[in-house]
Design goal:
The complex is a heterodimer of chains A (280) and B (266). With 280 residues, chain A is of the alpha/beta class. Chain A folds into three domains: 144 residues, Rossmann fold; 71 residues, no CATH class; 37 residues, no CATH class. Chain A is globular and about 65 Å long. In chain A, helix 4 crosses helix 5 and helix 6 packs parallel to helix 7. Chain A has eleven helices and ten strands. In chain A, strand 9 and strand 10 form a beta hairpin. Helices cover 37% and strands 21% of the residues of chain A. In chain B, helix 6 links the parallel strand 7 and strand 8. Chain B has 266 residues and is an alpha/beta fold. The longest helix of chain B is centred in the middle third of the chain and has 16 residues. In chain B, 36% of the residues lie in helices and 22% in strands. Chain B has a six-stranded mixed beta sheet. Chain B has a four-stranded antiparallel beta sheet with strand order 2-1-4-5, with no helix packed on it. Chain B starts with a strand and ends with a helix. Chain B folds into two domains: 233 residues, P-loop containing nucleotide triphosphate hydrolases (Rossmann fold), CATH 3.40.50; 31 residues, no CATH class. Classes of the chains: A alpha/beta (280), B alpha/beta (266).
Chain lengths: 280, 266
């Protein structure tokens, strides 16, 4: 059974003059990594908000269609209950850090405190989570003293500890350097290996190709493609996505008659190595 | 207008030393991308170039002005600065008013202000939202409002802190056009970026920082040195990585150069 189901979802923000989402229908299987891609304004973040219940509980507007999380209709279920099912990590980790806590360790424990979990159980879970996100060395530092990569891992950790079966990640590496990006992507792989369902919005298509088993493309609020990453990403420039340089070079080589035309373009270094070696 | 940085040291109050002895010169009209890890000191360095931060030791000169001796308001005429987080610089109630703020402070006449605002909004594709409140825009659009504010100032020096964050293919193409325009106008552009492919394609010169120091400066070829990229925790540009993986001697960084090399091999 699908853990997330979206049926004919349309949404228009209050005071907006057009729909941010138009009749989007899709399902997500448990334990999978799905990437959502699209140009700016395509509706990616709006879909994330709807999957996490922030629409309709936080953002107001005109909503049509349904979102089901583990069978529960998000419009009928209070946000407090939804957050135990779906955790969302935002683009900017600063927005996620509570500001109420003095140390990284307390920040990670913050969500659990609100659930009234026993002290011993809490300590075990905090220690385990800090370890998993490689934050044990900075456990006693202020959240604001961390590097960007550490802050983003803290944001992920503070959601992870709630053990939601679904995690929605909206461009979690937008602010990070290559090293921080690698760390976060590795963490996402770990989460998937723990059976979490991951929905990832990401502009860096090489990472999409490396991490996701499936890619959804949004264009002007509509779901326009849904399938295997390499096939979808080979058409990236049709939707205003930033193609990998591997794909761009492959396309240019075909256009200049250096290589015979093929449908699938390389998206990762490994794929590019094969693509150019066989042909070149 | 040249930039001269000599023996620059900077320590945040009560904190650690962020910049540790930096010296360089940037000639008028240069276009440089500043690369390095989070925490390398890139943003702290560029905040010295418009007087936002003052050296703990050493000097920064923009043309004939030492940053110690002039106010941030004065530097606004010489250095345009687009912050990493556009929300740090937007405070007006409409996009057009935001873009007009700088030129108004320059005490230009109304016609000139209106001309500059119109032009900046056009270049940044913001005409449709000119009356919108910046905070009703998406973050990628707010970044363009911040860029437009700097375009309207027509400063001889422009600093862009992470301009590609959150941009899609249309945004990147528009940014490339703007860089071309600045190139034609002889504007000095310094961009802090994590986007190494964009940096290698768009900037003739790269400067690599780590731990508060400048490790290297040169064209994209410097990234073909694993000792450097490892020390600065950078990835090489994708096409450079590919050329290496294919066992090529040369490591092109642009699609054109890559295809030329491929053609030569055939």
């Amino acid at each position: 059974m699908s853990i997330l189901r979206v049926e004919q979802l349309s949404f228009q923000y209050l005071q907006a003059n057009r729909n941010a989402l138009r009749a989007v229908t899709c399902e997500f299987e448990p334990g999978t990594v799905t990437a959502i891609v699209g140009a700016n304004g395509a509706g990616k973040s709006t879909l994330c908000f709807a999957l996490a219940g922030f629409i309709p509980h936080f953002f107001r507007g005109k909503l049509q269609g349904k979102v089901y999380v583990n069978g529960a209709d998000t419009q009928q279920t209070p946000l407090a209950q939804l957050v135990t099912q779906v955790g969302m990590v935002f683009q900017n980790p600063f927005n996620q850090i509570s500001g109420a806590k003095l140390t990284v360790s307390e920040e990670v424990a913050f969500g659990l405190e609100n659930l009234g979990i026993a002290r011993a159980e809490m300590e075990t879970r905090v220690a385990r989570t800090l370890q998993l996100f490689d934050l044990q060395h900075v456990a006693q530092q202020s959240p604001f003293a961390l590097s960007g990569g550490q802050q983003q891992r803290l944001a992920l950790a503070s959601i992870f500890i709630m053990e939601p079966p679904v995690m929605i990640l909206d461009e979690p590496t937008a602010q990070l350097d290559p090293h921080g990006t690698r760390q976060v992507m590795k963490t996402i792989q770990t989460l998937a290996a723990h059976g979490r369902t991951i929905v990832l919005v990401e502009h860096k298509l090489e990472w999409v190709a490396r991490l996701a088993a499936r890619v959804l493309v949004l264009d002007k609020g509509a779901l326009v493609a849904d399938g295997e990453p390499r096939a979808i990403l080979s058409r990236a420039n049709a939707w205003g996505l930033i193609e990998t340089r591997y794909a761009r070079a492959a396309r240019a080589a075909m256009e200049r008659g250096l290589i015979e035309k093929k449908e699938l373009l390389p998206q990762t270094l490994e794929q590019a190595k094969d693509w150019f070696q066989i042909e070149g | 207008m040249d930039i001269q940085v000599s023996e620059l040291y900077f320590t945040f109050r009560g904190g650690s030393e962020v910049l540790r002895g930096i010296s360089f010169e940037i000639r008028a009209g240069s276009r440089i991308a500043l690369l390095g890890q989070n925490g390398a000191g890139k943003t702290t360095l560029v905040k010295h170039l418009n007087g936002l931060l003052k050296p703990t030791r050493g000097d920064v000169r923009i043309g004939d002005w030492n940053t110690r001796e002039h106010s941030i308001a004065q530097f606004a005429r010489r250095v345009g600065f687009v912050f990493q987080n556009p929300d740090d610089q937007l405070f007006k109630t409409s996009v057009a008013a935001e873009v007009a703020f700088g030129p108004t402070n320059l005490k230009l006449d109304a016609a000139e202000i209106s001309r500059r605002v119109g032009r900046a909004l056009e270049v940044c594709a913001l005409q449709e939202v000119r009356d919108a409140h910046p905070y009703d825009l998406a973050s990628w659009q707010r970044r363009w409002v911040a860029i437009a504010s700097v375009v309207a100032m027509q400063t001889p020096i422009v600093i862009l802190d992470e301009p590609t964050t959150g941009q899609d293919a249309f945004g990147l193409a528009r940014l490339a056009e703007l860089l071309d325009e600045w190139k034609r106008a002889g504007v000095t552009v310094i961009a802090v970026t994590h986007d190494i492919d964009f940096a290698a394609e768009q900037f003739p010169e790269l400067m690599v920082m780590a731990q508060g120091q400048v490790l290297a400066r040169g064209d994209a070829e410097i990234l073909n040195e694993p000792a450097l990229t490892e020390r600065a925790a950078l990835d090489a540009p994708q096409l450079m990585q590919l050329a290496r993986a294919l066992g090529w001697q040369r490591a092109p960084v642009t699609v054109d150069a890559f295809c030329a090399e491929l053609a030569a091999k055939k």
